[in-house]
From TrEMBL:
It catalyses: ATP + H2O = ADP + phosphate + H(+). Its cofactor is [4Fe-4S] cluster. Its EC number is 5.6.2.3. This is ATP-dependent DNA helicase DDX11. InterPro entries: ATP-dep_Helicase_C, DinG/Rad3-like, Helic_SF1/SF2_ATP-bd_DinG/Rad3, Helicase-like_DEXD_c2, P-loop_NTPase, RAD3-like_helicase_DEAD, Rad3/Chl1-like. GO terms for molecular function: 4 iron, 4 sulfur cluster binding; 5'-3' DNA helicase activity; ATP binding; DNA binding; hydrolase activity, acting on acid anhydrides, in phosphorus-containing anhydrides; metal ion binding; RNA binding. Gene3D superfamilies: P-loop containing nucleotide triphosphate hydrolases (3.40.50.300). It is an enzyme of class 5 (isomerase). Keywords: 4Fe-4S, Activator, ATP-binding, Cytoplasm, Cytoskeleton, Developmental protein, DNA damage, DNA repair, DNA replication, DNA-binding, Helicase, Hydrolase, Iron, Iron-sulfur, Isomerase, Metal-binding, Nucleotide-binding, Nucleus, RNA-binding, Transcription, Transcription regulation. Residues 8-443 form the Helicase ATP-binding domain. The gene is ddx11. It comes from Callorhinchus milii.
């Protein structure tokens, strides 16, 4: 049986003859999905990992659906004993063997038991019939769309045109209107500033969502699907293109999910600077649409009532989003194609793509959308019995910790308190009693948070403290000793009242702070609290320390997110279990520069939610080493048994002679290479490094990428080499480039670096290429490909250990020391630091060797790389070919030298 299964799972549709390691990858993947396991897959860049994931996973999904369909048909025909059914159907049916056993053991079968069993069987048959009917209707509808799209939508579009044009016209009129009526009396001009009564989740009654009466039609059956997640939108787009080229590209139902910033097609919203502003404006337009509908109903009862004009989104209409959903399902589209489609049919891609989730077989999304529980629920993602594939998962632990960690500054706390206090005082007599209560509760919390930072409410932004204070404490201690004075106050945060309180904040979001130079720009009419607080933001902006125009332009930062929303995120973070997080209190000279930060120490708490629901999970990456950390801190800590975890690691497709990894323990002059924090500043060590790099420039053509542990050390070495004349010597062979700190300059530097290498290859001059100084963990250590001549050699200067004096890292070390067992006598905290270092190293050196014909050398400058504990954390395909050399001279003089392929 196992042999037949292995043979069947190895026959995968593929666009070309796969490599042997790809066949092994797909077979292992198929087995993991079939068995419902957690798979860790490591496949180096250039080995076709994406295609292996696509063809392996979709082959399993195709087989699963066919088997389920066949078993359902057999059950409906009553021709198969239920013992032979798959686990999915057995869970919802009653086995015939159970009846026989009951008769044999208990004599006559109890009539109540028999009735219950028969009813369960009837319910199962009814469900199967219903599912089959839905499936056929869906397939027929999609087939009609494939055959004649224009005919399908012609009549519907015609009916929608009038409404769409009306909404666009109304939206533009409102957005273009001049808000210059500030001198009118409060009861007229400021009527819109008064908050509507807010109802918490517990108080809400069923309400209209603002869409059509046909909203129920969008509720479709959630078919078994694969959720594919990766780190960036560019990686997702690349994956979608691989799907399009695969044998499944014509038949698979796939939808791409993304952020509003990437999917919005409303020009009035897209022009906003930050993602927070785009989100706020989008949600406000939805609220306006519901308010407009409610106002229309009231107008029918009281025709003389004055109509208030509101800006609504013309793309947020149910009928157009239905069009988009069906178009998405019939043809695989990436984010750019989705946006183009939304503009064409005047439908919102952000919400329309969500409508396509239930019937989709493959859902592609950024992994923040999967890992953040509230975002996952808001997006309509249901994980029960589904498949999750997380690609580029090497930083999964850190990503989860970052997503659930939250920081709020003194400036944000003071700004939120000031704005909300002024609003309450100005409109106290006009507010509903319940809204006034919520505002007072929020102010109460803000007062305590500011006091923790040492502030009072007289000139709080200028309040100075004596020296600096840094404290890192547990949540329970923080809440009981620093935040609340009575148990009743603590209960307000810990029980469901906090949901009601910050549900109020979510509904009435504070507008983002605009840069000073935008102060006089006309703003569209916004929601009640938004307008008032935005005006306060503008006044506050004018009171900031004076700057010249040039300084303002140079220091201008992206628009700050809503202070109230930052406060909300921090308070919600405090409701986490006490043992899983810490609060870092950092007091500076002023409250404005002080901050409170919540640190999540146990990411397994949130990953366990995903593991509990999914049928199977696959985490994949080009480099997953060190795997032990991943298993211990995330999988085993999530309650996964060791026998449910499956590991797969494959070698590279390049020949052994195409890579030369070297560990240099000593330099050309015999000085030991040890770049510890205490020793790396020595001129002797920097001079030794210069000799190595100079020798490499003499023998390596094309590009050399040299990684330093930090920007500071790279700057220090550069200055020393410039002073000693090393840079001038290096420039006789290679043109030197430095990694910029600003992300906006990265493309320009890479373009010039590439152009220099290409020109040197064509010319017969002394310049043989280029030398790029980069930083581990910087802009060029991940996501940048130095293939072919762009990276014939990568040099790692020292070991990029994190700062062990960091309070956050110290607490993480203490936490793992307390919760995990020692390994070979070594403390988990020290292993954690070592793992963080080697993960960064693996990502950096992985920038070279990008395809089968590529070749390069990897030079690790530090004798500590030769330690077994460090060497074992290199990727297997590199580790097996790594040679440790006592000196640089020995690497040139023995049988294997740096000119191996040149």
């Amino acid at each position: 049986m196992a042999e037949e299964k292995s043979q069947a799972s190895s026959k995968f549709p593929f666009p070309y003859k796969p490599y042997t390691i790809q066949e092994q990858f797909m077979t292992a993947l198929y087995d993991v999905l079939e068995a419902g396991k957690i798979g860790i897959f490591e496949s180096p860049t250039g080995t076709g990992k994406s295609l292996s994931l696509i063809c392996g996973a979709l082959t399993w999904l195709r087989d699963f659906e066919e088997k389920k369909k066949l078993e359902a048909a057999q059950l409906l025909a009553d021709r198969v004993p239920q013992q032979g059914l798959s686990k999915d159907l057995q869970n919802s049916s009653v086995s015939s063997s159970d009846k026989l056993e009951a008769k044999a053991s208990g004599g006559e079968l109890d009539w109540i038991t028999e009735f219950v069993q028969k009813k369960a069987e009837r319910d199962l048959v009814d469900k199967l019939k219903d599912d089959e009917l839905k499936r056929k209707k869906r397939e027929e509808r999609l087939e009609q769309i494939r055959n004649n799209v224009q005919l399908k939508y012609a009549s519907k579009r015609k009916r929608a045109d009038d409404d769409t044009e009306h909404l666009i016209r109304m939206s533009k009129e409102v957005l273009a209107s001049d808000q210059s009526t500030a001198t009118e009396p409060l009861d007229k001009e400021e009527e819109s500033f008064i908050l509507a009564e807010y109802e918490s989740d517990d108080e809400k009654k069923p309400k209209d969502s603002g869409l059509s009466d046909d909203d129920d039609d969008v509720e479709e059956e959630y078919v078994t699907k694969i959720y594919y997640c990766s780190r960036t939108h560019s990686q997702l787009a690349q994956f979608v293109h691989e799907v399009q080229k695969s044998p499944f590209g014509k038949e698979i139902r796939m939808v791409s999910l993304g952020s509003r910033q990437n999917l919005c097609v409303n020009d009035e919203v897209r022009h906003l600077k930050s993602a927070q502003q785009i989100n706020d404006r989008c949600l406000e337009m939805q609220r306006n649409k519901r308010a407009v509908k409610k106002q229309s109903e009231e107008d029918e009862e009281t025709p003389k009532r004055k109509r208030e004009s509101r800006a609504v989104c013309p793309f947020y209409t149910y009928e157009q989003m239905q069009f988009l959903r069906d178009e998405v399902l019939v043809e695989v589209k990436d984010i750019e194609q989705l946006v183009s489609l939304g503009k064409e049919i005047k439908a919102c891609p952000y919400y329309g793509s969500r409508f396509a989730i239930p019937p989709a077989q493959l859902v592609v999304m950024p992994y923040q959308m999967l890992l953040h529980s509230s975002t996952r629920r808001a997006s309509g993602i249901k994980l029960k019995d589904q498949i999750v594939v997380i690609d580029e998962a090497h930083n999964l632990i850190d990503t989860i910790s970052c997503i659930y960690s939250c920081e709020v500054t003194g400036t944000q706390l003071c700004c939120a308190h000031s704005q909300l206090s002024q609003y309450m005082e100005r409109y106290r007599t006009r507010l509903k009693a319940k809204n006034l209560m919520y505002i007072k509760q929020i102010l109460y919390i803000l007062v305590h948070l500011i006091r923790i930072l040492g502030g009072e409410f007289i000139d709080v932004l200028l309040q100075c403290l004596n020296g600096k204070l840094l404290a890192l404490i547990g949540i329970g201690y923080f809440l009981n000793h620093h935040f609340f004075q009575t148990q009743d106050e603590l209960n307000m945060v810990q029980n469901r009242n906090i949901s009601s309180l910050f549900g109020f904040v979510e509904k009435y979001q504070v507008a983002a702070v605009k840069p000073v130079d935008k102060e006089n720009e006309k703003k569209p009419k916004t929601a009640a609290l938004d307008n008032f607080l935005q005006s306060l933001n503008q006044k506050a902006s004018g009171q900031v320390t004076p700057q010249t125009q040039g300084e303002a332009m140079e220091n201008e930062q992206p628009a700050m997110a809503s202070p109230m929303m930052k406060v909300e995120g921090f308070i919600f973070a405090l409701t986490n279990a006490n043992k899983d997080g810490r609060v870092l209190i950092q007091r500076q000279g002023t409250v404005a520069h002080s901050s409170l930060k919540f640190l999540l120490l146990n990411p397994a708490v949130y990953f366990a939610e995903i593991v509990k629901e999914c049928r199977a999970i696959v985490v994949a990456g080009g480099t997953m080493q060190p795997v032990a950390e991943f298993k211990d801190q995330l999988l085993l800590a999530s309650g996964i048994s060791a026998d449910r975890i499956s590991e797969f690691t494959c070698g590279h497709v390049i020949p052994p002679e195409n890579i030369l990894p070297l560990i240099l323990c000593n330099g050309p002059s015999g000085h030991q290479l040890e770049f510890t924090y205490q020793k790396r500043d020595k001129p002797l060590l920097m001079d030794e490094t210069a000799r190595i790099v100079s020798n490499l420039c003499n023998v390596v053509p094309g590009g050399i990428v040299c990684f330093f542990p930090s920007y500071e050390y790279e700057k220090q070495v550069y200055a020393h080499w410039e002073k000693t004349g090393v840079l001038a010597q290096l420039e006789t062979k290679k043109k030197i480039f430095q990694e910029p700190k600003k992300a906006s300059q990265v493309d320009q530097v890479l373009s010039e670096y590439s152009r220099c290498i290409q020109q040197s290859k064509l010319s017969a001059g002394d310049i043989t290429g280029a030398l790029l100084f980069s930083v581990v963990g910087g802009k060029m250590s991940e996501g940048i490909n130095f293939s072919d001549d762009l990276g014939r050699c990568v040099v790692m200067v020292g070991m990029p250990f994190p700062n062990i004096n960091s309070p956050e890292l110290k607490e993480r070390m203490a936490y793992v020391d307390k919760t995990m067992m020692k390994t070979e006598g070594r403390s988990p905290g020290k292993i954690l630091v070592e793992n963080l270092c080697m993960k960064a190293v693996n990502q950096s050196i992985g920038r070279v060797i990008r395809h089968r014909e590529d070749y390069a050398s990897i030079v690790l400058l530090d004798h500590r790389y030769s330690r077994p504990s460090i060497l074992s954390k290199l990727p297997a395909w590199i580790r097996g070919r790594t040679e440790s050399k006592a000196s640089f001279a020995s690497s040139l003089c023995d049988g294997t030298n740096l000119e191996f392929s040149w």
